[in-house]
Amino acid sequence: MAGLTAGFTEEELDALRERAEAEGRSMQSFAHDAAVRAVNEHSRLLDETAEHVLKAGEELNRRLA
Questions:
Q1: CA 52, CA 1: separation in Å to the nearest integer?
Q2: What angle, rounded to 10 degrees, do the helices at 10-22 and 27-64 form?
């Protein structure tokens, strides 16, 4: 499995540690799940944006026809 090194400030690490501890999880598990959620949310937003642009384009093309 490939590894990843991410640079965090001390304040960010403290916040990450506190959140992970509050959920009874390791920092690694917490950070992993947060990154996966961020990627999924980004993909969802891109899909929604593409759908919106396509619908708007269809409407504009209909008006121009």
A1: 37
A2: 100
Query: pLDDT tens for residues 41-63?
Result: 999 999 999 999 999 999 888 88
Burial bucket for residue 3 (CB in 10 Å: 0-12, 13-18, 19+): exposed
d(CA 22, CA 39): 23
Tens of pLDDT, residue by residue over 5-24, are 888 899 999 999 999 999 99
Model confidence, pTM: 0.70
CB 30 within 8 A of CB 20: yes
Q: Where are the alpha helices (DSSP H) in 1-65?
A: 10-22, 27-64
Residue 27 and residue 20 in contact, taking contact as beta carbons nearer than 8 Å: yes
